[in-house]
């Protein structure tokens, strides 16, 4: 019998518990759905705002980003946690649309609430698998940038195949990024940072924005996230990587 969360959505007019029918998706997942408690405020935001600012990643349609974001250039953020950093970036750059994708229901509700509270109309929340979003729902060359901040490092060697930043993912991402658009990754897990640097450097569709070919300083537009602060408190080093989509 399917788990209850797959069959009985808690928010009938909100994010679907399984928008693309993931039991049919054969590939290895790079994420784990987290079904933690939704607060009253988050739930109210989902009920009130999902129909306007939310969308399910169901793989059934190609999004018109110009219509969705009123003509703004659009950056895709994959995995936004509770959304505080996303909301701050949206507030500080109202001329850029942020399509924020995650599977964490409390975070979706929290980001919607933050966007409403701050009057930020340049945020849309996408619920589901970012691979399906990229592969099935975004047109070629449609993104002005992509952000992958603190993805799951899958530290055990047998799980490294689940890491998101892999050659196949980069090949797919490159088809959706406009030439010159920047893929910005950040992680506090040093072995994963080294792997990211290696696979990005080797990929023909990307070039490092750093002349020395190494890691980048944290750009001013990326806020310190709560997760990052916890890592810094533990003595973790945070590495940023900014790679530009080549013109070929």
Notes on the protein architecture:
By secondary structure, the protein is of the alpha/beta class. Helix content is 33%, strand content 19%. It is built from nine helices and eight strands. An eight-stranded mixed β-sheet has the order 1-4-3-2-5-6-8-7, sandwiched between helices. The radius of gyration is 17 Å and the shape is globular.
Strand content: 15-25%
The main β sheet shows up as:
8 strands, mixed
- Along the chain, the helix and strand elements come as HHEHEHEHEHEHEHEHE
Rg calc: 17 Å
Q: DSSP helix count?
A: 9
Any low-confidence stretches, pLDDT <50, length ≥5?
Answer: 1-8
Tell me, rounded to a whole number, the average pLDDT.
Answer: 90
Helical coverage, percent range = 25-40%
Shape: globular
Task: Compute the separation of the termini in Å.
Answer: 49 Å
Q: Give the total of beta strands.
A: 8
Strand order of the largest sheet: 1-4-3-2-5-6-8-7
Structural class: alpha/beta
Provide a concise account of the structure shown.
This protein is α/β, with parallel strands linked by helices and 248 residues long. It is 33% helix and 19% strand. The protein contains 9 helices and 8 strands.
Chart the SSEs and their pairings.
Elements: H1 4-7, H2 40-53, E1 54-56, H3 65-68, E2 74-78, H4 84-92, E3 97-102, H5 105-117, E4 123-127, H6 130-137, E5 143-149, H7 167-176, E6 177-187, H8 190-202, E7 206-208, H9 226-233, E8 239-245
Parallel strand pairs: 1-4, 2-3, 2-5, 3-4, 5-6
Antiparallel strand pairs: 6-8, 7-8
Helix pairs in contact: 2-5, 4-5
């Amino acid at each position: 019998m399917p788990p209850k969360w797959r069959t009985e959505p808690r928010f009938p007019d909100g994010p679907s518990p399984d928008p693309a029918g993931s039991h049919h998706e054969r590939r290895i997942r790079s994420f784990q759905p987290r079904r933690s408690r939704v607060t009253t405020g988050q739930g109210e935001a989902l009920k009130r705002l999902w129909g306007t600012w939310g969308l399910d990643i169901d793989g059934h349609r190609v999004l018109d980003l110009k219509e969705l974001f009123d003509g703004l250039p659009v950056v895709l953020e994959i995995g936004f946690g509770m959304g505080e950093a996303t909301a701050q970036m949206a507030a500080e750059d109202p001329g850029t649309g942020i399509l924020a994708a995650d599977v964490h229901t409390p975070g979706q509700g929290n980001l919607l609430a933050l966007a409403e509270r701050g009057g930020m109309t340049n945020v849309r929340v996408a619920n589901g698998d970012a691979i399906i979003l990229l592969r099935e729902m975004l047109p070629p060359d449609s993104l002005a940038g992509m952000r992958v901040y603190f993805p799951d490092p899958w530290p055990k060697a047998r799980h490294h195949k689940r890491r998101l930043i892999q050659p196949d993912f980069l090949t797919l991402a490159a088809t959706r990024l406009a030439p010159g658009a920047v893929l910005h990754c950040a992680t506090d897990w040093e072995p994963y940072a080294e792997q990211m640097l290696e696979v990005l450097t080797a990929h023909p569709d990307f070039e490092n924005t750093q002349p020395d070919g190494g890691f980048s300083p944290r750009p001013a537009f990326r806020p310190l996230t709560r997760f990052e602060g916890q890592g810094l408190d533990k003595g973790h080093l945070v590495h940023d990587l900014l790679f530009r989509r080549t013109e070929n």
